[in-house]
Amino acid sequence: EMRKTDAPQLRDEYRSYRILAGQPGIPDVHYFGQEGLYNVLCIDLLGPSLEDLFDMCRRRFSTKTVAMLAKNMLTRIQTVHEHNLIYRDIKPDNFLMGYPRSPSFNMVFMVDFGMAKQYRDPRTQQHIPYRERKSLSGTARYMSINTHLGREQSRRDDLEALGHVFMYFLRGSLPWQGLKAATNKQKYEKIGERKQQVGVRELCESFPPEFGIYLSTVRKYAFEETPDYDFLRGLFDAVLANLGETDDGMYDWRLLNNSHGYESSSATVAAARQTAQPRASGAYKADNHHISNQALRSYDNVAHRQSTPNMDHSASNTPGKLSRERLSPVDAQAPDRGTGALSPGGDAQQMAKINGLVHHSTDAANVTAQAQNAHAAHNGHAHEKHGFMFKIKSAFGCCSSSSV
Q: Residue spans with biased composition (Polar residues) (predicted)?
């Protein structure tokens, strides 16, 4: 990004990486500093994003792949939350697989923490207060209903957005995509209204009931409530068990090219990238718009706000005073409490809880769970050299990736 930008995000992103340093699925930072007119952040070189892989798999993932991804993505979000941060920009572009042929090639990584925010004090564990009339932050397609309504985000909103990503992978698209409106504001409102109109039953119809249970559960969480991550992960263990599958890491893209994987055929990758726009961090498809805090600054006095599909809209172009509320410059962090799946002694209790919910909401068969540990997450295309990614955000609010 430009050194003199009015709304610098790269330093905040660097602080997030420092807080999360050493955690599974979080890339290492190799350099942060100033180069000429730019602030520069260099992180590990990673593989394609889940959005890229979705394109390679003809824009539909199998239920098995989504269940395995769900466990891994949940674990990454849990790690972020346990380090006192909320992510606030959940989308497939921001989760990347490890670099091909590296030991972590099959691990999910999480990247692009420019919108992350501290939701509680690392020392006192005091949670931020509930507020309304907030500007939208995140990607309209996936953000929670409460975010559309202008409510302060917390852990529940990351998890709801994650549920929308799961259904996007299963369905191939979401019911609120492709809506038309005269202005961005009207477009965002239409998306929010449509999300409220489409119930969980309709959204998750014809898919395993655990996906509906997940969304219903996270939408009911209170603002400060600590999510039951083990229970939520257990839902996807149940999906795998009912399919007669295990979490073996054999994702759909590994079955491409006669099970040689996506990276074995340059033609396959080239065809997929012709279909999909390049997605460097911060660059968004026209129908998958990213909204920053200040993008809708002029609408801060609207009490109830709902969001809508998507056009490219650069926050850098918004004049006037900027809303800054991301990370406070605190290096302290809460002790890591781990991110495992169901605890050995808690399987029966957790699965009884899952079974009760399934039978209460559907006639589906009994749910069984097999607990396994998950992996990690990241974002956008990377260009390789020296084993890390060189990330420069331009003055126009978009990011480009170039090699070093």
A: 305-320
